[in-house]
Write a structure and sequence with these properties.
- The protein is an alpha+beta fold and about 300 residues long.
- The protein folds into 2 domains: about 5-65, no CATH class; about 80-300, Barwin-like endoglucanases.
- It is built from 9 helices and 10 strands.
- The strands form 2 sheets. A 6-stranded mixed β-barrel has the order 4-8-5-7-6-9.
Length: about 300
């Protein structure tokens, strides 16, 4: 199949595994405790299922209905759960970031890039291809859904409909000219989008055609140092205005996952570009190491 990206598919499946694992723990805490108390942690369910199947004790229907949780061990090295990762990342970021939200130095940005590479296995930078935003550490505010095509309504969006939809198009227009041209890839881009202040770049007026193309759907890593959560998104809108006191905007799904808002619907985040020319890094919550295709290791921190 032309254009088929096996590595991206593998990373998306890994991402879904970790999200399914977390949903299981969140929705069925008693079952999680029950299994662990009996020496069957959720990540070993697949192994146990195979043993039971070989003895005829597990029906095919039950096997198909059960989540496929892959057990990933690497010798005696501890593997961090998403919750443990967020707590460790919070601690690391609290030591690296200034007490107040301000512009970061090159040394601080480089240290953060090394940290993100060690934990998540991705190349995230404050500057990429000679381009950088005015801020790599700033406040992000809650945005609404973007209309993906003419006639799109909030009821066509599958989550967080209470956030509403903007009356106008995003800075790069509609994602597609008509509904029947909407692809899953573009659905994901609208779901996980950010707005950045391209209009305040010092060379925006002189290089607008080039910069407009470069920033369109540019992949970024957004990290909330308060929650320790990270998500991969794309640039799909411009803003917010300076008078808001915010430097970035996040889609309803981005803000919901990051838990990145206070009473003023904003919160501090680190936002770096993701260097991913082969499109191997899927959009959405980042709770695993992309290079290894598994959970972050404790010694990476």
């Amino acid at each position: 199949m032309a254009g088929f990206n096996k590595k991206l598919l593998k990373n998306k499946l890994t991402q879904q595994y970790f999200l399914a694992h977390q949903r299981f723990i969140r929705r069925h805490p008693h079952a999680h405790v029950f299994l662990k108390d009996r020496g069957v942690p959720p990540e070993k369910l697949r192994e146990k299922a195979k043993r039971l199947l070989s003895t005829g004790a597990l029906t095919g229907a039950l096997l198909l209905a059960a989540p496929q949780l892959v057990h990933n061990t690497r010798g005696n090295i501890a593997v961090l759960s998403p919750y443990e990762l967020s707590q460790e990342l919070k601690e690391k970021l609290s030591a690296l970031l200034p007490l107040t939200v301000e512009k970061l130095s090159s040394d601080q940005e480089n240290t953060l890039s090394e940290l993100f590479r060690a934990i998540f296995g991705i190349d995230a930078r404050a500057q990429l291809d000679g381009n950088r935003l005015n801020h790599s550490y700033g406040y992000i505010g809650a945005e609404q859904h973007l209309p993906r095509y003419p006639g799109d309504t909030i009821y066509q969006h599958d989550a967080i409909q209470q956030a509403g939809i903007t009356p106008g198009r995003g800075a790069w227009g509609y994602f597609v000219p008509s509904k029947n041209q909407l692809t899953d890839d573009l659905v994901q881009k609208e779901k996980y989008y950010v707005a950045v202040q391209t209009m305040y770049l010092p060379d925006w007026n002189t290089r607008m055609p080039q910069l407009r193309d470069w920033y369109k759907y540019r992949k970024v890593l957004v990290v909330n140092p308060r929650s320790g959560k990270a998500i991969v998104a794309v640039v799909a809108d411009a803003g917010p205005a300076k008078f808001t006191g915010k430097q970035f905007g996040g889609s309803p799904e981005v803000m919901d996952y990051l838990e990145s808002k206070d009473g003023s619907q904003k919160g501090a985040v680190v936002l770096f570009f993701v260097n991913d020319p082969d499109n191997n890094v899927p959009l959405g919550p980042l709770e695993y190491n992309v290079e290894r295709g598994g959970a972050p290791l404790a010694n990476a921190l």
